Each structure stands twice: as structure tokens, then as C-alpha cells.
């Protein structure tokens, strides 16, 4: 499925995030978060600099793509392609929402894709940062630290260390420790559902209810479009590479 789709990849962090066109937005009803107009200039500057820093080597995790919402700089949309572990091949959409007093307080992380994970609420997709940032230290912690923790949380070593008291999904925690095979089956099911055509392409998918739209949109490619794109970027099937 992944080979038949195309997404909007992260734009250059040198994008002018201070332009007047970005600062005049309608109220953001989709998340209930503070609007950009009501955000102090110092916070907007801090958030802009955090995004610009993602261009530095190692700051944006591999397999993760991030872009500020075109409606509000204080909201970033992201997609995470999981390459290993229980959630292998998952395609997970999530969002970072910055508070008006950032960096004094951390951003909120919300998954828009349904995923069975101990740290993710099944009600609203909220992700718990506490296991990694206890407490949040504004002079030491940055958004790239948050992104790396999101990625790490899907790996076995992090799952092993999660405390039950930090879990938004207690059932996932208990299954992981008591019946790992059942947990693995549900994680695999989450992965398969995240790759489904409805989850990727349907803007009205049930998992998006009450969460608003995501600015990174996927679209399915026709076979001829896919072939042309693969040829353009130098990707070929194994059989084609073996031909003399």
C-alpha cells in the first residue's frame, strides 16, 4: 500500500514563518487551541526557531515528517513511518500543539491515527510525554527531543520501561506484560489499519472525528503515475534491476 501513495513531505525549515500572511488566521475551532493572533510574539519566535532547528543533522528523526499547519503556527502536523518492532509498517499521523507560554510548558502530542499503545489514549489520541520529560525543563528540552521520544516509545526498550501509572491505555500495558502475543497481535492490527486506504485517503475517517483535518494529505496514484514517479527518483523493482 505504501508504494502506491504520495504525501506532502516536510517543507524546508527556512520557510518564512514570520510573514504577515501566516499571522492572520481565523480562530482554530478544530483543536480548541489558542489562536496565533492571541499568542505572544516571544512564543511565536520560539516555535519558529524550533522548526528551523529541525534541518540540523539528527534533529528530525528518520521516518518522520513535520510541517506547521497552514492555519496556525502553534500547531504542527506530522507523519511517522514505523520501520521496526511491534508496529512495523505503521503510518501514523499525529499533531503537536504548542501552549501560549511555550517553552515554559511542553507541547501536547495527539495521535490522529488510531493506535493501540500504552501511552496513547483510545479516547482522544493523547500521548503521554511524562516518562521522558519528568519534569519538562525549558532550557534543556526541545521539540526535537519530543519527536525522538515519540519514535522511541514504539521500540521494545521503551515499552519495557513504561510504568503503569503513566499509561493512558491500561489495557495495552497489561497485555504487554501479561500476554505479549496478544499485545503483538493488536499492535499488528493497528499497523494494518493505519495502512488501509480509508485511513490514508479518507478525510472523514472515524479516527479523525473531532480532531479536524491533517495538513499532510496522502493520495493514491494510478499505476502509470507510480511508474513515472519511481523512474524519476531512480526506484526500480528487483526484477528490473537484474535485467542485463
Automatic annotation (TrEMBL):
It holds the Pfam family UQ_con. Residues 42-196 form the UBC core domain. Residues 1-30 are annotated as: Disordered. Coiled coil: none annotated. Keywords: Ubl conjugation pathway. Residues 1-17 have a biased composition (Polar residues). It comes from the Eukaryota. PROSITE patterns: UBC_2. This is UBC-like protein. It comes from Lentinus brumalis. The lineage of its organism: Eukaryota, Fungi, Dikarya, Basidiomycota, Agaricomycotina.
Amino acid at each position: 500500500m505504501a508504494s502506491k501513495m504520495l504525501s506532502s513531505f516536510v517543507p524546508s525549515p527556512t520557510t518564512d514563518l514570520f510573514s504577515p500572511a501566516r499571522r492572520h488566521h481565523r480562530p482554530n475551532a478544530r483543536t480548541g487551541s489558542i489562536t496565533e493572533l492571541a499568542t505572544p510574539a516571544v512564543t511565536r519566535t520560539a516555535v519558529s526557531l524550533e522548526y528551523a532547528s529541525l534541518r540540523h543533522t539528527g534533529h528530525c528523526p528518520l521516518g518522520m515528517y513535520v510541517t506547521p499547519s497552514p492555519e496556525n503556527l502553534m500547531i504542527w502536523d506530522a507523519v511517522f513511518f514505523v520501520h521496526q518492532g511491534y508496529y512495523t509498517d505503521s503510518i501514523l499521523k499525529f499533531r503537536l500543539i504548542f501552549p501560549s507560554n511555550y517553552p515554559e510548558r511542553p507541547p501536547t502530542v495527539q495521535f490522529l491515527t488510531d493506535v493501540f499503545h500504552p501511552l496513547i489514549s483510545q479516547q482522544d489520541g493523547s500521548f503521554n510525554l511524562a516518562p521522558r520529560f519528568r519534569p519538562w525543563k525549558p532550557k534543556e528540552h526541545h521539540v526535537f527531543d519530543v519527536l525522538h521520544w515519540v519514535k522511541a516509545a514504539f521500540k521494545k526498550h521503551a515499552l519495557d520501561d513504561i510504568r503503569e501509572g503513566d499509561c493512558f491505555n491500561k489495557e495495552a500495558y497489561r497485555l504487554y506484560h501479561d500476554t505479549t502475543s496478544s499485545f503483538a497481535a493488536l499492535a499488528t492490527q493497528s499497523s494494518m489499519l493505519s495502512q488501509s486506504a480509508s485511513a490514508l485517503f479518507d478525510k472523514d475517517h472515524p479516527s479523525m472525528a473531532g480532531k479536524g483535518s491533517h495538513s499532510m494529505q496522502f493520495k493514491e496514484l494510478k499505476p502509470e503515475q507510480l511508474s513515472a514517479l519511481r523512474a524519476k527518483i531512480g526506484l526500480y523493482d528487483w526484477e528490473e534491476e537484474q535485467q542485463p
